[in-house]
Amino acid sequence: MRGKTIIITGASDGIGAAAARQLKSQGAEIVVVGRSASKTEAVAREISSPYYLADFARLDDVRKLAAALNKDFPRIDVLANNAGGIMGSKRKVTVDGNELTIQVNHLAPFLLTNLLMDKLANSKATVIATSSAAHKWAGKLDLNDINLENDYKGLSAYGKTKLMNILFTKELHKRFHSIGISAVAFHPGVVRTNFSQEFGGGARIFYSSPINRLFLSPEKGADTLVWVASTEPEKNWKSGMYYHRRKIRQPSKQAEDAALATELWDQSTKLAGLT
Question: Given 158, 207, 242, 243, which residue is catalytic?
């Protein structure tokens, strides 16, 4: 692991912070990315790593982050697109005109990955997406209503973005594995984290209830991320696949739809302002 540069978004808390600590202890150079200045700096100081602030509800923040990472690091061995959350029961729109859940959980990591693409390719990098079994709750993904203007439901919106994470992983593999980029999505399990706290709704009640004592610790939830980041593609795991507990799992039928993955990529390119 020594000499590896690993960027982890959403690393100020939960799974991201746990993965940052574990991978740093293995000798990797960790780059901590978060939205909260105090939390992000605290994790970075704890593990003696550089940190960057970015609010994924603003695509300009993502562009500035990508520019800084491209400038500051000669190589990127792993990009862990881990940031995300459940955004509550009321539909919200970002300054970029996108539904908040779609932008934070899908469009922002899509844009960041694409803006880092040359460096990722040159580094033969691995791109990891923190998805979820919640992608099976998505219902039909209608890309004609990608910003969920009709019949918005918070948990369904979250499920759709986790489905998008898998579709993005599969399309990234299809387009760029031949030039050295490997991609994987994983389900961390139900983890004791704060990712639903800020925006309210039924998920916050669920995650704050006494039942959360049965949930996984962030360290256990981060296990597959750490395993992928610290091992070799094709030797230890297969690019383009969806994992849980270090094993390939069968995602939903929609997640295997190659035409849907291509259409999502094309629409995301436009919404993210890429040419």
Answer: 158
Residue linked to tokens 């993955």: 261
CA–CA dist 33, 21 (Å, integer): 13
- Residue 71 CA: distances (Å) to CA of 30, 64, 75, 139, 269: 16, 11, 10, 41, 23
* List of residues 6+ apart from 213 with CB closer than 8 A: none
Helix axes 108-115, 59-72, angle to 10 degrees: 30
Q: The whole model's pTM is what? A: 0.92
Q: Which residues contact 97 (CB under 8 A, 6 or more apart)?
A: 147
Place of tokens 């390939």: 248
Tokens of 124: 């033969």
Q: Is 158 a catalytic residue?
A: yes
Query: What distance in Å separates the CA atoms of residue 229 and residue 248, rounded to the nearest whole number?
Result: 16
> Which residues have C-beta within 8 Å of that of residue 21, sequence separation ≥ 6?
43, 46, 47
Q: How far apart are CA 248 and CA 55, in angstroms?
A: 32
Q: What is the pLDDT of residues 80-111, one digit of tens each?
A: 999 999 999 999 999 999 999 999 999 999 99
**Orientation of helix 258-271 relative to helix 154-176, angle to 10°:** 100
Cα separation, 122 vs 133, in Å, equals 32
